[in-house]
Write a sequence for this structure.
């Protein structure tokens, strides 16, 4: 029996049966950047639409003919053809039409491939410009992260909504507002220069850091999407670091911090989604490749004398990753890093983490004192983790009743299901110990 | 002389050109991979005999001597045939069961199953 493909059309030679994971998402991000460079940043939506259409074309034809030999080149070529059709048809391009057509025609699908040097710089430049535009300080932070995910990472509004625990409509609104601001405020599509570069770069890093944290934090939301957020944040940061203007120690520190924390991501919950504490995690399941990459970037971050808060956080993560087991964790070093970190960042959450390090170095009593010292700091008094930490330390001091009270307070303050389950378990253990004493 | 009895053939027509435009690239890649796997399996089983996608470019010719030529054959894009496969199946039930596996169904694509007229009895009195 002949295969239908053979019968109807000769298949492309060297047909492959498997696509690289996330290929469409990554191609989308790349093509939106390049097309935005051609259409203009004020027509960002148009670039997104053309890319979407190209991917739909693939969906409509590949099942019949098989996956092309070079899938990325196929998508690029299709996007190029669609873009040219559009430019010739649309009135809005009339005044600049010849030059736009010329620059689009310059693309050749092959030279556009990932491994080609000729368009490589062009793509990297476009992507960096788009990063700077999405992370412009005039755009609100929550709009920045949504827009970056949509345009640079190829997430849909629905996927972003899942990651941020909000509705698709709310995300659609954020995206519309962000694109509107880019148009109205004439936010440029360019890599800033001079003294502005460093400041704007910090804004980009901040957004990538937020993106990572959104994925990393243990709150609910679909775990698969959240994991993707972490990996996308790392991917964008690595792309950023590959660009000569952005190849700075603090970017490597940020990448190191994300990799070294991300390596431990899969072990933070058990198969039922219950939270596992650091000492309970199976260290053999930590991602060794990510740890190795993280240590490599940590090394690169040490060039020069710059020390950012990313450096300190990466250093802390490295202490955890390199410890053979929980007992051999270098807590004095972690504490010294936290001591410096609180000088950079007066966030109460970091102060709380420092208190945990204090407890590990100087004992639970010292930890409780450190928590008490900061408990009226900002919104910390209504933060569930403050009571979870106090409960843990009181339990270590063999005060199960006091510990139980703290776990109850903590339970009242969180809506997150996995956290509630964990706290209930801790509470029950304390109550049993109290009962046994009587 | 009678034609040997052959396995019936069914045409599966896939209708719908407007995939949900809110699909993310990741979802597009997923549904496509599932669709490719589905076709591959049918081909390996010897069930799928041919298949091609159709673009939305075309004309409709009607009226005497083709006096009316209209753009696009399509009343609505969700009705438009976007592709077909020729399927060998034992009976309509089997063809329908296969059509129900179409990965596009979750995304607004519909599948029409039609028995191909194989002209059983060809040659008996019917002018060939």
């Amino acid at each position: 029996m002949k295969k239908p493909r053979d019968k109807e059309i000769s298949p492309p030679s060297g047909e492959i049966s498997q696509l690289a994971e996330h290929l469409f998402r990554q191609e989308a991000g790349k093509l939106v950047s390049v097309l935005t460079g051609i259409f203009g940043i004020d027509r960002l939506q148009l670039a997104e639409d053309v890319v979407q259409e190209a991917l739909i074309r693939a969906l409509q034809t590949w099942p019949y003919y098989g996956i092309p030999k070079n899938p990325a080149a196929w998508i690029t070529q299709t996007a190029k053809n669609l873009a040219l059709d559009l430019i010739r048809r649309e009135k809005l391009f009339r005044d600049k039409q010849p030059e736009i057509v010329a620059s689009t025609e310059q693309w050749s699908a092959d030279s556009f491939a990932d491994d080609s040097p000729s368009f490589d710089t062009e793509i990297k430049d476009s992507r960096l410009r788009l990063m700077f535009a999405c992370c412009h300080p005039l755009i609100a932070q929550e709009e920045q992260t949504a827009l970056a995910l949509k345009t640079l990472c190829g997430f849909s509004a629905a996927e972003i909504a899942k990651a941020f625990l909000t509705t698709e409509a709310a995300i659609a609104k954020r995206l519309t507002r962000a694109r509107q601001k880019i148009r109205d405020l004439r936010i440029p599509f360019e890599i800033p220069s001079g003294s502005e570069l460093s400041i704007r770069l910090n804004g980009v890093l901040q957004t990538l850091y937020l993106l990572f944290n959104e994925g990393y934090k243990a709150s609910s939301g679909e775990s698969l999407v959240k994991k993707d957020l972490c990996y996308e944040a790392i991917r964008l940061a690595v792309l950023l670091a590959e660009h000569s203007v952005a190849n700075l120690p603090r970017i490597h520190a940020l990448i190191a911090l994300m990799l070294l924390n991300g390596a431990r991501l899969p072990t933070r919950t058990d198969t039922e989604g219950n939270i596992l504490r650091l000492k309970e995690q199976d260290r053999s399941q930590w991602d060794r490749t990510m740890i190795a990459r993280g240590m490599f970037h940590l090394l690169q971050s040490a060039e020069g004398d710059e020390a950012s808060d990313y450096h300190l956080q990466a250093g802390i993560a490295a202490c955890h990753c390199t410890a053979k087991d929980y007992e051999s964790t270098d807590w004095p070093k972690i504490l010294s890093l936290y001591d410096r970190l609180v000088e950079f960042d007066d966030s109460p959450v970091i102060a709380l983490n420092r208190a945990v390090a204090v407890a590990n170095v100087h004992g639970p009593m010292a930890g409780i004192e450190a928590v008490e010292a900061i408990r009226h700091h900002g919104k910390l008094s209504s933060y569930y983790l403050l009571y979870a930490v106090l409960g843990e330390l009181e339990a270590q001091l063999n005060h199960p009743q006091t510990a139980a009270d703290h776990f109850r307070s903590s339970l009242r303050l969180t809506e997150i299901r996995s956290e509630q389950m964990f706290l209930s378990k801790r509470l029950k253990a304390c109550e049993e110990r109290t009962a046994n004493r009587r | 002389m009678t034609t040997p009895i052959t396995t019936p053939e069914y045409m599966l027509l896939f209708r719908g050109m407007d995939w949900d435009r809110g699909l993310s690239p990741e979802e597009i890649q997923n549904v496509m991979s599932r669709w490719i796997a589905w076709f591959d399996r049918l081909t390996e089983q010897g069930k799928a005999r041919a298949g091609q996608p159709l673009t939305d470019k075309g004309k409709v010719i009607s009226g005497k001597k083709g006096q009316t030529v209209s753009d696009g054959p399509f009343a609505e894009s969700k009705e438009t045939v976007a592709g077909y496969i020729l399927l060998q199946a034992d009976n309509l039930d089997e063809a329908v069961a296969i059509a129900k596996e179409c990965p596009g169904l979750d995304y607004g694509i519909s599948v029409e199953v039609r028995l191909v007229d194989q002209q059983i009895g060809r040659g008996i009195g019917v002018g060939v």
